[in-house]
From TrEMBL:
InterPro entries according to UniProt: PBDC1_metazoa/fungi, Polysacc_synth_dom
Protein name, as recorded: Polysaccharide biosynthesis domain-containing protein
Residues covered by the Polysaccharide biosynthesis domain: 1-109
Coiled coil start-end: none
GO cellular component: a single term: cytoplasm
Length: 121
C-alpha cells in the first residue's frame, strides 16, 4: 500500500515478467472487471476452471506462484478485513498489474497520500 501511495503505479514493476503476465491475463480475462472483484465468481467452479490454467502457465517462472496472498477486492480502498480476499500470488500480480497499467490504482495514490512529517509529529 505504501508503494502504491508513493510511486506512480503505471511505472511500478512487480516482477521481471510483468509484460507477459499482463498480456496473458488480458487474453484469458479480457472483460474481467478488476475495479471491484467478486470473490464468489473467482472461486466458483467455473472461475476456478478458468483461473487454474492461467496460473499454471507461470509455475516455472514465478517463484511461489500458487502461494496465498491478500488482494484488495475494491481497488479504491486500502487493505482491511472487509476489503481483502485470499488469492494466489500470480492472481495478485495479474490483477494489480492490470490495475496499475489501466489507471485504476491512480486514485489510491491521491486518496491515501503519505502525510508529510512536521516538527511536531
Amino acid at each position: 500500500m505504501k508503494i502504491l501511495c508513493s510511486v506512480d503505479p503505471k511505472h511500478l514493476k512487480l516482477t521481471p515478467h510483468d509484460d507477459l503476465i499482463y498480456k496473458s491475463f488480458r487474453e484469458v480475462f479480457p472483460n474481467l472487471s478488476i475495479a471491484k472483484l467478486n470473490e464468489d465468481e473467482m472461486k466458483s467452479p467455473e472461475g476456478k476452471n478458468k483461473w487454474r490454467p492461467f496460473c499454471e502457465q507461470f509455475k516455472d517462472i514465478i517463484e511461489d506462484y500458487s502461494m496465498g496472498t491478500l488482494l484488495r477486492a475494491d481497488c479504491t480502498d486500502e487493505y482491511s478485513e472487509q476489503n481483502s480476499i485470499l488469492a494466489t500470488r500470480i492472481q495478485f500480480y495479474a490483477i494489480e498489474l492490470a490495475r496499475n497499467r489501466e489507471g485504476l490504482n491512480d486514485l489510491i495514490r491521491q486518496k491515501f497520500k503519505p502525510k508529510k512529517l512536521t516538527k511536531n509529529s
